[in-house]
Structures are given as C-alpha cells and as structure tokens.
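Side project, low priority. Logging it here so it doesn't get lost.
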Amino acid sequence: MPPNETKIVSSLPAAVIFDMDGVLVDSNPFHLEKWADFLNQHHIAYNPDELPKLILGHRNDTALRYFFGESLSQEESDRLSEELEETFRRVFKAHAKPLTGLRDLVMECQNASVPMAVASSAMMKNVDFVVDALGFRPYFRYLVSGDEVSHAKPDPEVYLKAARKLGFSPEDCVAFEDSFVGIESAKRAGMKCVAIASTFPFSELQTQTHADRVAHSFKEVTLERLRKLFEKPEARS
C-alpha cells in the first residue's frame, strides 16, 4: 500500500440485537386493534391517530398508566396487561411469520458466528411465544423482555442488559428497531441502530429519529452493510 494511504477497516458488528414487535413480526396492527377494543371495553376515550405513538414500543405498564392514571397499582397493571396479551397471543398465533428478508439476515449472522439476542418491551410470555412461533429460538443466545428491567424504553436499560449478557460493549453492537422510543433506547445505550419502516413511515424515521440507517425492509440489510456502520479510516504509513 502506498505511504499515508487510508484503509477503511471494520470487522464489527460484534452482535446483533432485535426488538420484537414490528421487527421480528408484523404484530403491531394486531396490538393496535387489541388496544382499541380494550379501551372501548373499559370506556376510555382515545384519539386513534395518537394511539400508535402512545403504545407501540412502550411497555404495557407505561401505556396503561397513561390511560388509567398514575395511581394504577402494579397488581392491577399486571392483571390488565395479561388481559390484553392473552387476547393478542390467541389472535396472532395463526399470523406469526418473520418480516420479509429477516430469515435471510438471521441465517447470514448465524453462519458468520455473529451472536444475536432479542431486547423487547413486551412481557416474556409474548417474547417466548413469538420466538417459538417463528422457530428462531436456536439462533438467539438471549431473550431480554420488559419483565426484566426496571426502566422501560426509551431508557437504554433493556439494550444495555442484552449487550452485557452477550458479553460485548454496546458500542460494538447494532440494534434493529421500528419505533421512536425503541430507536431512542438503542441510541442512548450507545449502539448503532437500523430502523425498519414496518410501523412508522420511512420519512418520519429518517427525519425525526437518530437512527444510523433507515430501511424499508430487511431485504435492504446484509451483514456487509451492517459492517459499514462501523467503518473507520485507518492510516497506514
């Protein structure tokens, strides 16, 4: 190599971490329908246009306290959450399939020995349900759910915990997200973040978030493209 020529070098990501709803599966339309029915049954007024940003990516207890009030007890929150999610699992079971292009990326990471994990705001019952429905459990080293953290997204706790379990620095990991609060969580953890425009418009994710890349679908994502997120110039003399 000629003197002082710059070489671009990257062997990262060290690990890939996926959110679940809207990333592994296109489940958010079912969640929205479930929430609308639930709020109607409890005679709670809501704005349908605002509902997606109030619930998608959020842990249930955060959304429930928004609608039912901050005085909602943990016991009652848990009961209402299970009422919501039991209905979701029953209705969604027949529709559970990976987002377009996801299986190819998972297999590429698996074949390259890049470890993978899930970091979701959902309860563990839902995470287990979705991962098993997709047949992806053998590919994920760890599943981290909203049940395991004290602070919900956009706090970075769930991503920091996933990175810690995997044994890598968050700065060396890339996260996949679809929601505003999820992207903020991943970025606050110090991770690279790829936003998938499965839930919110591509243009909004581009202009209103700090995602490192925005993709229409996983068909636009390869391990080589993920490595480009970590490229740094290395001067050689």
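Brief comment: The chain has two domains: 7-26+98-235, 29-95.
Revisit when time allows.
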